[in-house]
Amino acid sequence: DVRHVLKLDRQTQIWNRASLESGGATPAAGDIALASLLLAHGLAMNGGVAHAIESLSQAEIAAAIDGFNYFGLTDASHVFEQRPDDSEDVEERLNMMYRTAVPNDRVLAHAFRVKLVSTPSAFAPIDHGAHA
Questions:
Q1: Cα 107 to Cα 38: distance, rounded to the nearest angstrom
Q2: pTM listed for this prediction
């Protein structure tokens, strides 16, 4: 089915735009939400949740929380609402909470796909000339 291939292509392009271009030059609400949660997710997966929270600005943390909520990932948003201290116990608890909320990238991809299918206008159009 050609339409399925095109939807996958658009989905991949939007995902890549969010992760590589912060949502693009003129991001829509969905692009901003996806870019924000992917930034936080990448930091959390590479250095842990405490590292992510310490590395992000307050505005970036707020945007990540909004992004997780936008895609219905409220358990993940709650993790980023926590304020870690310097104890290893707290760091491990936050990491465990996040791994429970987002056990793998497929969880994020699925939440994104559901939003894209239900509300395609939440994402800016793909600029076909930019990445030929």
A1: 12
A2: 0.88
